[in-house]
Amino acid sequence: MKMTSIQQRAELHRQIWQIANDVRGSVDGWDFKQYVLGALFYRFI
Question: For the chain, how many structural domains are there in total?
Fold first, then answer.
């Protein structure tokens, strides 16, 4: 079944936030901002 662009975008958002959640516990807070800024950048593309 082919995914619509809305479904693809929702899946991308889900994966990005999952990565952010996974990284959150293993990265220092100061360094975490680099990941957050990158995720926010991709979120608004």
Answer: 1
